[in-house]
Structure formats: C-alpha cells, structure tokens
Amino acid sequence: MSALFAFLHHVSAFAMFAALVVEFVLIRSALTVESARKIQVADTIYGIAAGVLVVVGLARVFHFEKGTAYYFQSWTFLTKFALFIIIALISIIPTMEFLRWRPAVKGGQVPAVAPGKVRQVRSIIHFEMAGVVVILLMAALMAKGIGTLY
Length: 150
Known about the structure:
Blueprint: H1 2-28, H2 33-63, H3 68-71, H4 75-90, H5 92-100, H6 102-106, H7 115-143
C-alpha cells in the first residue's frame, strides 16, 4: 500500500507541474477562445492534482512511511509543506481570473483581460513553477535524511 501511495503522490506532483507548464506556455501567447479554454482545463487539472497531492501526501505522513515524528522534526519537510501552502494560496489569483473567463469562453468569445493582469498571472505561474522546483529539492534532501532536527 505504501508503494501505491508513493506512486499516486509522484503522479499527482508531475501532473500538477505539467498543468502549470501548459498554463504558462498558453498565457504567453495571444489569448484566443481555444487557448483560454485549454488554460481553464489545465487549471482544473492543476487543482485536482494539487488536491490529490496534499491528501495522499498527508496520508503518507500520518499512516505510511516514517511517521509524523520523523516528518515534523525535519526542516526540509516543513519547508516543503510551507511552500506547498504558499503556492496553493497564491494560485487562487490565476484560478479566479480563469473562472472570470467562463462566460466569454462559453459564448465563444475571447475573454477581455487587461495586459497588466496577464503579466500578473504569468508572473504568479512562473513563481509557482519555481516553487515546485524548490519543493522537489526539499523532497530529495528529505529522502536522504537531510534536515532532520533530532
């Protein structure tokens, strides 16, 4: 069972990152109805993958692997988890923007988005991708026992 949860954890992490990359690539080009729709789908996948990632990750911490005492005494785990929460909170801004696009996209129209808003969303997605890379570094360090406080 532990291997299955590790697999689900990794698949959801890769799916989340892939969805972010799709969003980032699509938001860099001129917005069309089709690209707006793809961004919305990618954001939905991102949200689902992030939800699965946190649920499976917490299940691993509390029920599998090394146990809560190990993880909560590891600055690498705590950093990884804190970054995940920060990224999740920041990701609300692009998601809210993409949700605002729904009426226009459903009506077959390109969403009206101010250039400044597009730059802001692009910057946030870029920050999210960088944050995920740092999370991967923390995961690798944690797996090697680096950062344990006891």
